Amino acid sequence: VALTFDATFFGRGYGLLAYRALGRNIYWQEIDSEKIDYIRQGLKHLQEKGWQFSSFTIDGRRGVLQLLEELFPGTPIQMCLFHQKATIRRYTTVKPKTDCGKAIKELMAGMKDMTEISFFERLKALKETYQHFLKERNPNRQFMHRTLRSAMRSLTTNLPYLYTWKRYPDLAIPNTT
Predict the structure, then answer these.
(1) Lower Cβ count inside 10 Å, N or C end of the chain?
(2) Is pLDDT above 90 for 37?
(3) What pTM was computed for the model?
């Protein structure tokens, strides 16, 4: 099955980690934080129950990607497009003031409808256009546009996992959690 999992919190220190496949929740566990160990335990439980995974759709939590590649080498992994867009929105803000921020926001707005190649080419063009702007430093030698640099780094790092759902159409991989 194409497995999707994500955590939802109902206050500080109490949440659920839900695992979904076939349009329904197949397992959930109460959690106090979104630790990698909890995800590992949940995946182990599902395997013990006989579930086999054709793909994973994840929220981009640090460490999850490495865990899945370690436990299930070669299994396609899709980064949740909603979570990626939310990450970029946090870095660029809802109403970016710089041309670079506006260009990144525009790129993200059309992301779902683009092919992987066209998204990569537009991202590459953005990097080239704003390379000097993103390298600007203040008098203390710190980068001036750290959040925009982080947005670009996030997109570059996650690019191999943003279009998995289009690369494997026969697996019916969800593109969001």
Answers:
(1) N
(2) yes
(3) 0.90
